[in-house]
Specification:
By secondary structure, the chain is an alpha+beta fold. The chain contains six helices and 14 strands. Strands 1, 2, 3, 4, 13 and 14 form a six-stranded antiparallel sheet that branches. Strands 5, 6, 7, 8, 9 and 10 form a six-stranded mixed sheet that branches. It is elongated and about 70 Å long. One of its GO terms (molecular function) is G-rich strand telomeric DNA binding. InterPro entries: POT1, POT1_C_insert. One of its GO terms (cellular component) is nuclear telomere cap complex. This is Protection of telomeres protein 1.
């Protein structure tokens, strides 16, 4: 795995880190005194790498404002879901021309009200593996159960006039085990009824990019970032890895 490979690189006295066989080796001191961009071949030792834990290398990147942010953990999402469950689903928003709604009350002490809205296509419900649904009042555990069976899940809450997305600290869409986030700075969330235009397509694919676009969300991309410090006795150079 990558982590043990990085440790081995640190233990070796010299490691070839780039592979431009047609170039001669250049000392780091020379590179540090040169203007970018240029291409070099180096022989150097890996002194340190960050982050030490590989899962910390995964960040969320906005290509519009170029911001980077940490991936929220499940506890943050659970907290937002609990907060949204305080507002009971608005029955006036149920069973519209483009989605069917089911509502029930949990049997526990809290007696939460949960509503699930199944988006229709040609006035018919699709197969579960092709279905987009919206859930109000669900817990994290309930949301994950739905993602195992249905193609897309969007957590929502009721207003007086329409369903709306939760705080953008939460994922606006879940597909399988992937959570999709929107940029708080660049997004201008639209009412959920904007999705009806996708439902009206000949074959709704429910692609995250299309869903984000119609909902006014600037989609954040998962990126892999690491920082390496390389040394060769003449100087130290920081190298950054950034990849989607």
């Amino acid at each position: 795995d990558l982590e043990s490979h990085l440790r081995r690189c640190q233990q070796l006295s010299v490691t070839v880190l780039t592979d431009h066989q047609d170039l001669n080796n250049t000392e780091l001191k020379t590179i540090l005194n040169s203007t970018a961009p240029q291409q070099y071949r180096i022989r150097a030792k890996l002194r340190t790498y960050k982050p030490q834990k590989l899962y910390q290398s995964i960040k969320l990147h906005c290509s519009k404002c170029n911001s980077l942010q940490e991936v929220p953990d499940g506890d943050d999402f659970d907290f937002i879901l609990q907060g949204s469950a305080v507002t009971a689903p608005n029955p006036e928003l149920h069973n519209t021309s483009w989605y069917d709604s089911v509502m029930w009350t949990t049997q526990d002490q809290k007696q939460r009200k949960i509503a699930i809205h199944f988006v229709k296509h040609d006035e018919m419900l699709q197969q579960p593996e092709d279905t987009l649904l919206m859930i109000e009042g669900g817990t994290l555990k309930e949301v994950w159960k739905l993602t195992k069976r249905f193609k897309c899940v969007i957590p929502v809450r009721s207003t007086e006039d329409d369903l709306e997305l939760l705080d953008l600290s939460a994922p606006f869409l879940l597909q399988g085990n992937i959570k999709y986030y929107g940029c708080k700075q660049c997004s201008t969330p639209k009412p959920i009824k904007s999705l009806s235009s996708v439902a009206a397509e000949q074959r709704p694919s429910w692609e995250p990019t299309e869903i984000a676009q119609v909902l006014g969300i600037e989609l954040l991309q998962y990126v892999f970032i690491m920082k390496f410090t390389l040394v060769d006795g003449t100087g130290a150079l920081n190298a950054y890895l950034f990849d989607y």
